[in-house]
Amino acid sequence: MSEKTESKISRRRFISASIGAGILGIVVGAAGAWLLKPEVVAEKTVTTTFTREVTKTVTATAPVTVTTTPVGIDMVAQRAINGVRDLLAKGVAKPGDTIRILHVAGSRANLEKAIELWSEYVPEIKVELITLGQEPDVYTKAMSEAVTKAGTFDAVTIFSTWLGDIVESGLARPIDDFFSKYDPGYTGDIAPIEPLASYTTLYKGKRYALVFDSDVFTLSYRRDLLTDPKLKDQFKSEYGIELKLPDTWEELIKMAEFFTKLNLTAPSGGKVWGAYFYAEPRFAAYITWLNIFIEAGGILFDLKTMDPKIDTSEGRYAFDVMLRLKPYMPPEAVTASWADLYDKFVKGETVFTAAWPSLSKEAHRPTALVKDVAGSAVLPGVEVNIGGVKKVVRAAPNPVNWVAVISNYAKNPELTYLFFQFATSPDIGKDVILTGVILDLFRRCWFTDPKYRPAFEEGYGSEFVDAYMKSLEISFPDLLIRGGPEYLGKLTVNVNAVMAGTKDPEDALSETAADWDSITKKYGVDSQLEAWKALANLFPADVKEAWKAKGYM
């Protein structure tokens, strides 16, 4: 079943329906709290029966002869194919064996492309997709499998945010042995960019997943307004600094004020606002706060005791920045869904914003009103005193992010692993990512190698490709420990409450810290601390330098 033949509902109507049904957002205090990743803003087809499973087998209809070494694909994919042939020769795998993959509907086009290419080389091995309509359905089904151990699927694609829960449930099989045996290309010029490759696949030092996506935020902006000579002169006269890409949030606040007060008219006919950063009530508000907090040198938990460390000067500063930006953001920033940010930027109604890579895709579509003027850059940073020297620390959040996990109850885990090594290899992965909208680029060669880069420039814009590579290099993970979505759910609720004016920042921070302490104790301080210490070590170098200067590390 292709996306075109599925029952259709627009993403915007889907969001409204989901909110009404109590599906979208974060289920506060539950281990299955959800983060819904944006796919597109414009019309997007998804299954309307969200709990229905749709199974489809993609296989070759006639025998296909292949050479001992596949021709025309990279070495990572070749090793995967040769590994499958070896398993067939030894009788570990048999013609007609089937790999079953549980996944969300939004990734169906991507996976179908991978299966199509797979069938050209190993038509003997079939792949079936168990398609669920929404992210919460995937989480629930995966956690149910951890209890029943029924082997109903061999692999599942999950948000990396869930990795702690999935591993601790016993569902995820460690794959360090497969990494060593088959080499998925995690070193050198073709490797996934670090630190993303490590923090999305490792848990307590063991490898449990393959990178299948990246969700790092970049700054999107109206290049036409930022480079206008008259506006540059006016801004310099009024603020005494250059109108350019902001290095810090302090500079961005001044620019947001400037553009908002100009009362410019957008290409859509609406008002131009200086900024729009996530502050909405359902799941994304924590992203903006967390980015500023981390750049200011904040650390989420104590590295010796697991005590929450958000009720601090860095936490208060993050709220201070957001509250000073609020007058220069559209009111909907505090009340609307995540999609409203996309909608307003694509219409040219905001000068500065930040979101997932799909925003750049949307901004460069032929129908986008900013397709010729949308720019991309690394997010602004925070000036931090490190050893008596002021340094601008920049970091980029990576909310959610799809990874592939092999089930402990898979019928043939090695065969299943080889499919995902094939699907995420440099050559095959390029085609898989560019086929659909839910997955985004992560291997260094896709940014730098002339063999790959032009295709991604066409899909995202040349300025984005450069900015995104830099952003990946300074990216930091979501809270990839057990109960991660629970912690972040509590934070989101309180960030939105502060922005809505219903809660004081001090109260929000102290209440969040208390809630976090309760979550930690529920899962066990020692276990959570072990996971946090391993994760904290994978934060960007500048962030860890700030932590050391502040005595946090």
The level 1 CATH classification of the largest domain is: Alpha Beta
Main beta-sheet annotation: 6 strands, mixed
How are the strands of the largest sheet arranged? 1-3-2-4-15-7
Which runs of at least 5 residues are low in confidence (pLDDT < 50)?
Answer: 1-35, 39-69
The percent range for strand residues is 5-15%
The figure for the number of domains is 2
Mean pLDDT: 88
> How many strand segments?
16
Question: What's the number of helices?
Answer: 23
Rg calculated over all Cα atoms: 23 Å
Structure class: alpha/beta
Helix content: 40-55%
What does this structure look like?
With 553 residues, this protein is α/β, with parallel strands linked by helices. The protein has two domains: 3-29 and 38-211 and 402-439, D-Maltodextrin-Binding Protein, domain 2 (3-Layer(aba) Sandwich); 216-395 and 480-553, D-Maltodextrin-Binding Protein, domain 2. 44% of the residues lie in helices and 13% in strands. It is built from 23 helices and 16 strands. The strands form five sheets. A six-stranded mixed beta sheet has the order 1-3-2-4-15-7. A hairpin with a 2-residue loop joins strand 12 and strand 13 (389-393).
